[in-house]
Amino acid sequence: MDENLISTGLDELEDIFYIFNPEGDFVEWNEQLPSVSGYSAKELDSMEPTELFSGGDRDAIEDAVETVFEREIRTAVQAKLETKGGREIAYELSMSPLKPGDELEAIVGIGRDITEQLEQERRLQDMAQEIQELSMPVVEIWDGVILTTVVGSLDTKKAEMLTEDLLDRIVSTEAAIALIDITEVSALDTATAQHLIDTINAANLLGADVVITGISPEIAQTLVQLGVRLEGVETQSSLMEGLRVALSWQGVSFQ
After folding, report:
1. Global pTM?
2. Among 8, 100, 115, 247, which one is least packed by beta carbons within 10 Å?
């Protein structure tokens, strides 16, 4: 393949691309590296790869490079690239060994800006934290997404109230997704577990998908012992992961 074509293709990447040798000298890079870092080609030519990163992250970069050289395997690491102007940009870096023959001759790396991804993660965590700190019935947390959190023991009376409130809210908001967070549920019995299943089925009949979040090991063991099956029900280990799933179903991207 034409080398100019390959070089042009690499320059068109939004990611940074680079190759450096075992001595720590840059051998090749695409246009994104000087564009993002603010360093000229001449400056990059005299720098080591670790110099591009914030002081606190340089050890992680050095460890990743050492892993590639010593074990000759691909590795990935997150670190903040520090531009010439002092701005820090979060990157996920993937580095792989280059072995045209028997000897490792260089490392090839690709770096992707994950600033937006980390900000989305932070917003999700904040949202999950705020929700868990609130005492609430059933609320709409996003267009088409409702949530209820259950605290303490889920007895039959509480389960009946949950069903009524949840179904009413699905109808009034025309919700497509209902999140039921049971992170703080300490105990439930056979009748209550079955009521939970009935609630899910009723929500499905109204056109809403249900996501159950926060099933603890104790509750999971109880469900197994009681013979309650959650086949076809979306379950997530935490409220944050449940929010991620629900919002992704609504077209919100987290890449």
Report:
1. 0.56
2. 100
